[in-house]
Design a protein that fits this description.
By secondary structure, the protein is mainly alpha-helical. The chain has two domains: 37 residues, no CATH class; 52 residues, no CATH class. It contains three helices and two strands; from the N terminus they run E-E-H-H-H. It has a two-stranded antiparallel ribbon with strand order 1-2. The longest helix has 18 residues. Bound molecules: iron/sulfur cluster (2 copies).
């Protein structure tokens, strides 16, 4: 079991927030969150719930997913975003955990 979500800080989720209704007011107009600076969240300690994977899990998904299954679904989205935006293969978020589970 992963102890925490293994984000590799690519920043792509925060720079593609168009379509996320909860973050409508955060979009600076081009899909990039106005609080993303130098690839870091400037309001990290106070970021909204939708940006917090563990809180989202606890509040909205724990009755339908195990935590590891929820992490896996999120990791797949990270990987898809990273592939779509041309992140080099050696910098893609590791899916070893998923691969191991699917062996
Ligand atoms: S897309 Fe995934 S790996 Fe990249 S910053 Fe967001 S959560 Fe982290
Ligand atoms: S508030 Fe922070 S974590 Fe949430 S999308 Fe903006 S930069 Fe990313």
């Amino acid at each position: 079991m992963l102890s925490d979500f293994p984000c590799n800080e690519c920043g792509l989720c925060c720079s593609n927030i168009n379509g996320i209704s909860e973050l409508q007011d955060y979009d600076q107009g081009d899909g990039v969150c106005k609080y993303l600076k130098d690839n870091k969240c400037q309001i990290y300690e106070n970021r909204p719930e939708v940006c917090r994977v563990n809180i989202m899990y606890q509040k909205h998904f724990s009755s339908t997913f195990t935590k590891e299954a929820f992490y896996i679904e999120n990791l797949k989205i990270c990987r898809e975003l990273q592939s779509n935006f041309g992140i080099p293969t050696n910098k893609l978020i590791k899916l070893d955990y998923i691969d191991k589970k699917q062996e």
